[in-house]
Amino acid sequence: MKNLQLNTEGKLKHFLSIEGLSKEVLTEILDTAESFSSMSEQKVKKVPLLRGKTIVILFFENSTRTRTTFELAATRLSADVLTMNIATSATSKGESLLDTIRNLEAMHVDMFVVRHAISGSGHFIAQNAAPHISVINAGDGQHAHPTQAMLDMFTIRQYKHSFDNLKVAIIGDILHSRVARSQIQALNTLGTQEVRVIAPKTLLPSHVETLGVTAFNCIEEGLKDVDVIIMLRLQKERMTSALLPNEREYFKCFGLTEERLKLAKSNAIVMHPGPINRGVEIESSIADGPQSVILQQVSNGIAVRMAIMSLTLQSNGETL
Amino acid sequence: MTTTNNLEIPALLTKLETELKSLIQARALENPLMIGIHSGGVWVAEELHQRLKIKEPLALMDISFYRDDFSQLGMHPKVKPSHLPAHMEGRDIILIDDVFYTGRTIRAALNEIFDYGRPNKVILGVLIERDGRQIPLQPDCKGCSITMPKGQRIKLTGPSPLDIHIQSFTTEKSAA
Fold first, then answer.
1. Chain B residues with CB-CB distance to A9 below 8 A
2. Which CATH number is associated with domain B9-67+90-175?
3. Interface ipTM
4. Residue A225 has pLDDT above 60, yes or no
């Protein structure tokens, strides 16, 4: 089956999900991001690569970090950026989404960066948008958040250099996390030795092993000898039933404490996609501690999003 | 791939050095900053920076993000970061590249320089100027000028030893 994300020459046209992308494509994104990451240390943090392109950041769900790093990434590439925050109810999908897209298309835009509460909305827009438009998924429901996963891969590579001998543990609300799903796919595609998920049974999808992970219900067991710890936020807004007794209980069983951190390798890094619930999933002193790379993840987010934007828009040039 | 016989790098470097020396004097360049364009230009600049005893450390520039053919050719893999000093405002600059061909690389380099500030003077030195200029820019100093068939390109390999190679290519695009 043809991958919607690639053009006829196998180049990235849309970036909707890690699924279906090869190790080569993911590595190209990481390498390109490396070129951009050094730019942020320079006095002039802007290059004319996407001058004349118009990028619409279309957020149907709230976000601060993701939206601002996308905006910064686009402006540093010299694109014109239009940000739209559209509060919407889950029922107003289909027609209204398509209408929004059609209207923006009429303004001759080149890219949509979309966040939406409904899984598959990025694919839907990519299938229905005009052929010259690229679509980047900035988070769709519980499905995928591929740019977050790529910035996490970039951060891991920055500190650990290669994925081959790594043990990576993802801890927390795997069930509701689009970040976790994308991370697992990316880690496996890049050849990570072992990917573990650690969560109470109620926050793990059924048959989670089929995703290519080892599941642990005990954090002490799961943390043993890992190189990378990825904490996830408890997504209270997506929990529709009583999956947890309370936050205190959760922290007692699954919170990352100084004590538990010692079970991992001494040079293990601690990551979190943000926003952090201090004292709920992670002890405050760890979030601010020497093993935390949480703010580095935010910085890397700009370079990785610059890479994905320029790589997807370059494939459109072939039709000129 | 063939190595040219009549282009000798030591002689080209000496000629370029002599021309630069007299131009620096004639134009009265003050505490000049030398910038080498990645990758061949950096190798040539390293050599000249020593020979001309320039005090200011050598600056490096990768113009890939400033190219004008992004929409045709796409991204360059593995772009090296430019190492330019924070203060370019009012500086005298010696820009160095290995081969001058269409002039587009120099256009991109000038754009990047001007993003950092308004330099006082900029002079351009290249090891080899070949025919095929496409925009109204040209080198001030050069090791030599040559004429080549359109389907060929000249490439410097290095850094040690520096060598010149003539390559044949199939599409006009890949020459940019």
1. none
2. 3.40.50.2020
3. 0.78
4. yes
